[in-house]
Amino acid sequence: MGVHGLTTFVEGNRHFLQDVKFRDSRLVIDGCSLYFRLYFSHGLDQLHGGDYDAFASLLTQFLTALATCNIQPYVVLDGGMDPSNKKFDTLRQRLQSKIKEADNLSHGRNGSVLPILTRDVFIQVLIQSGVPLIQCPAEADWEIACLAQEWKCPVLTNDSDFYIFDLPGGYLPFRFFQWTNLNGKASQRYILARCYTTAGLCRLFGGMNPELLPLCAVLTGNDYGTPKDTETLLSLLDASLLRRGGGRGKGRSPPSRIEGLLLWLSSFKTVAEALEEVSSLMGEEACKGKRGQKGGLASRLLACMQEYHIKAPSSVARWFSGGKAFQGGQTSGPAQLPECLSTAALQGRLPPLVLDALVMRRVLLIPQVENSKLASSHCSSRAIRQAVYGILLHRSQGNVTEGRVGGTQPMKGPGGEIQDMRMQENRQGMRGGRGGRGCGGRGQSINAAFSKEQAAGSSTVQAQGAPISVEEYDRLDLNLKKMEVEAVPLRNHVHLAGLGQAPAAVRLGALLQVLGVNQSALVSVPFHLQLPVAVTGFWFREATPTPSQPQVQALVVGMVYGEVFLNTQLGAIHYQHTVPQPNWALEHKVCAGLDRQRVRPGERRGVDIGMAHSFSQWQACLWSALCLNQLLLLPLPEPHLSW
């Protein structure tokens, strides 16, 4: 994440960072960095579906530490994918890497895979704790930088792009943010941290102009890649620096590439001078005195540098002050949603999948620890996502096409490359039956001649009668595959434009229709548990292989334990619902008995791959159902996910 090698370079040079006693301040937090950091740096389980309760407790402790030091957090989350597609290759490579790491974990090898519901748990805890947050339409880095600059407060993140942004309050790397060990007197507690500023770095490079740092980032390489011919330029610069010894004196080894670039850039007063030198080295003589000839490397570098150009005022600051964010700016996602859903998206109550499907016609599915010899766990929940796509992309009843739900049997290509496919399935209605389960259901055929003109990014609804589809990127064996999945309209014709006016009963009917559950079957289930119970029924019908009775019983016991545990905890008022007054003594007894049966983290053994695959399918179904429920404006309450 960020600029290649920059974190190693800065953190390996102690004088670039200043010790601070952090307290009494606003703090802008990169939300995605926070939940990754908390989960992976505290040894939480990745093999058995996720330690969501331990993660929620850890996050609560983190927020309590901030409050103790009078630090006000403002959390900013990534939303959908960058509509420019500049980062898509990087995202695809990361997804392929996570598929391999999930397989490594399933075989007892090293790997790192974030459990699928971690982000949802994170947002639930923030909302319950009253922490201000916003989910941006796309990547959040630029918005975080703009907010921090306007407020002149630091940023807490793990992203090395923030070594480039010129922020007056600086950047606090998570690695040095010692929130678990508070210091100071009771009324003046503080967190020991280390703060980086571009001014400090530039001072150590002879007072270098900080406006040159983005050029260093672009030349070094970041998540957006590097312009064509950059390697040629770097080869020329490397040779020049080696001849000069990198400015380090006799007998010293040549500097790292980043240090060499900073030394080279420190010899220029302005960006224009540096780009003129680039043009000269590359033989682009026509651009003397200009910022790069049109189409030349210098002009492409300048364009890439704009990613680090901070503008004021900040839309996010306006949001946190009670106004509206992203008015007429980077609004491609929320701007296409009705106001009620647009607000939900900004509040973090509508997942990135919705924005990606609507704007990009493309969705990246999160890898899980499962049996890689079987179909992806996400195949069991495809019908739910097809309903999501149908609501988003079928604009009105007038141009609704008949939907087809079911699975596919993907075609493998040589070398494991991503495949393009078009689903052509038997018309089965929304439930599809057992033949529609998974990626390999019966009664299906595939036309592999997928049209390239249907690539993601097009938001134009196709002509009436033509199928509307979304690209899904998912696992096929150990490779990333691309599949065209058809958007299926619901029988009651619920569509995006009419969601805000649709009665709750209609929206609930649409949700239960997709999950294949009659409302009467849920009458005896507490209202706040109806969604996970309905999902469990859907999973039992759609999972491959069919879940065993002990697996179903394990899920039910897990739900019961989660409920009684929360009811017996101090502060459980957050989680109380309108249900009959419980028998507290009996609940305590049940909770204690179940707690004795719980396997502790230190007692866990290797993963049962068959069991893991089945429960990964259940989590995939719940993940997709949460998305559908949020899109339908919560006809059922969300369950407390950190059972």
Explain this structure.
The protein has 643 residues and is an alpha/beta fold. The chain has 3 domains: 1-196, 3-Layer(aba) Sandwich (Rossmann fold), CATH 3.40.50; 207-243 and 255-314, no CATH class; 352-394 and 468-632, no CATH class. The protein has helices spanning 6-11, 31-40, 52-68, 88-106, 118-129, 141-151, 198-204, 213-220, 230-244, 257-265, 271-281, 297-305, 315-320, 339-346, 352-360, 382-393, 504-515, 530-542, 549-567, 584-597, 609-631, and strands at residues 17-22, 25-30, 71-77, 133-135, 155-157, 171-173, 191-196, 362-364, 422-425, 444-447, 469-476, 479-486. The strands form 4 sheets. The chain has a 5-stranded parallel β-sheet with strand order 4-3-2-5-6, sandwiched between helices. A 3-stranded mixed β-sheet has the order 8-11-12. A two-stranded antiparallel sheet has the order 1-7. A hairpin with a 2-residue loop joins strand 11 and strand 12. Helix 3 (52-68) packs parallel to helix 5 (118-129). It is globular and about 75 Å long. Mean pLDDT is 83; it is low at 245-251, 286-293, 397-438, 440-463 and 570-576.
